[in-house]
Write a structure and sequence with these properties.
This protein is an alpha/beta fold. Helix content is 32%, strand content 16%. The chain is globular, with a radius of gyration of 18 Å.
Length: 318
């Protein structure tokens, strides 16, 4: 990964201007941000698409980085890091080899594995939802039994599309095959995606807990949080189209009825305070589809709420 540099007066090249790190061999951080821009394409034209621009778009949007880091944040009840000695670093983006798309996944798994294996909380920025697969593989390095919490409009249980088994329609199917994933909770499903009856039945047979967006709206977030198993560690994967298009328009598949800001914020706070969330990802933002930076505003807020809540939950206390 190339070293990130900051030019005076230019947009930030790291998330909230946190320090960059061009090598993680001697990682010393509580939280690490990592961009994983490229999924496994279903056709050649999909290797580099608008979603692959999202990691840097999220970083460069952070134009008020100092204020966001230092000022009082009413989402959190104080400054982002709560005036504690918390080290947050940005590892830049995993590099790709366009002649070998699978190499990006191998590199992503290796880097994510080093971060997670060091006990550092990972915040991964995609990229399409396929990039979650190498991160889930890397969770093996934690030695933990993990409950996967999945926010999405779509089920993502396809076994393959055009012969590709690690694309954006398959991350939860692949998760179900990993012994360290002890349970799966899927929240926000609605509308039509790639799932057929078979995929829905396969998810139910595995034991995935599927909570549609409409169930969440009717029952409330606290009821849904109560259904997430206790006494495990967690990984949170958020597909941007799981959120309602009114707050997250920059997605390829806008679907009415998604999670509101109030709901996703409450879910993040509730999950972080339920137990240790080892990491999270935010995927499938397509910056070119955004309207008045609405999606980037909510992406930054979402990540900040995750960081600030994990700090206050005592994750990094000595």
């Amino acid at each position: 990964m190339a070293k990130l540099t900051q030019v005076a007066g230019s947009p930030p090249t790291t998330f909230l201007d946190f320090p960059s790190m061009d090598s993680i061999e001697n990682l010393n951080a509580d939280i690490a941000v990592l961009g994983i821009p490229f999924g496994m394409p279903y056709q050649p034209s999909e290797m580099a698409n608008d979603q692959s621009l999202a990691p840097d778009a999220i970083r460069q949007f952070s134009t008020y980085a100092h204020e966001t880091r230092e000022h009082f944040d009413f989402d959190l009840g104080g400054p982002l890091l709560d005036e504690r000695d918390i080290r947050v670093i940005d590892c830049g983006n995993v590099t790709a080899d366009l002649s070998d798309p699978a190499e990006h996944y191998r590199r992503a798994e290796a880097v994510a594995g080093m971060i997670l294996g060091a006990g550092t909380t990972l915040i991964a920025l995609g990229g399409d939802h396929g990039v979650t697969i190498p991160v889930l593989q890397a969770l093996k390095n934690t030695g933990k039994s993990i409950t996967l919490v999945h926010i999405d409009a779509h089920l993502d249980w396809r076994n393959e599309v055009n012969g590709e088994t690690r694309g954006y329609s398959s991350p939860i199917r692949r998760a179900s095959e990993m012994p360290w994933i002890s349970g799966i909770v899927q929240i926000g499903m609605r509308g039509v995606g790639s799932a057929r009856i078979k995929e829905v039945n396969d998810a139910k047979t595995f034991g995935a807990k599927i909570i549609t967006a409409y169930e969440l709206h009717q029952r409330g977030v606290e009821s849904v949080i109560d259904e997430i198993p206790d006494n495990t560690d967690y990984y949170l994967t958020i597909d941007a189209d799981g959120l309602d298009p009114s707050i997250m328009p920059a997605v390829m598949s806008q679907t009415p009825g998604g999670l509101t800001w109030i709901q996703i914020r409450a879910l993040i706070h509730g999950l972080v305070n339920k137990g240790r969330v080892l990491g999270m990802d935010l995927v499938e933002i397509a910056p070119g589809y955004d309207i008045n930076n609405t999606s980037l505003i909510h992406a930054e807020r979402l990540i900040c709420n995750f960081i600030g809540t994990s700090v206050r939950a005592g994750y990094y206390d000595q």
